[in-house]
Amino acid sequence: MSASSDPSSDAVAPSQAVIEAIAAHEGIDVTDVEPPAYEPLYAVVNPEALDRLFQPAAGSTTARVVLEYEGYEITVCSDGRVDVNDRSVADGSIEFSLED
Predict the structure, then answer these.
(1) What are the angstrom distances between the C-alpha of 79 and each of 20, 28, 34, 43, 60?
(2) Which H or E run includes 74?
(3) What value does the mean pLDDT take over residues 76-91?
């Protein structure tokens, strides 16, 4: 199963969008995605670095980050989309790509 979070007119930081996408996928309030029930996001990725990576920049660079969080495969895209997939990344790796 997959869930997506699309950007609205008010830009949400990618790190917050990940938390919101998990909450939407699980059908819970976003404030419930916190310890001790959930691992802190910073345990798997630096939230500030993730947010900086997706700051608007000159040019038409497309970026995508894939990470595992709470047993989900999370894909954060430069267009603001955050996808949540139930399947886990087998090796727990983080994938990063930039495309022109």
Answers:
(1) 16, 25, 26, 24, 11
(2) strand 72-77
(3) 78
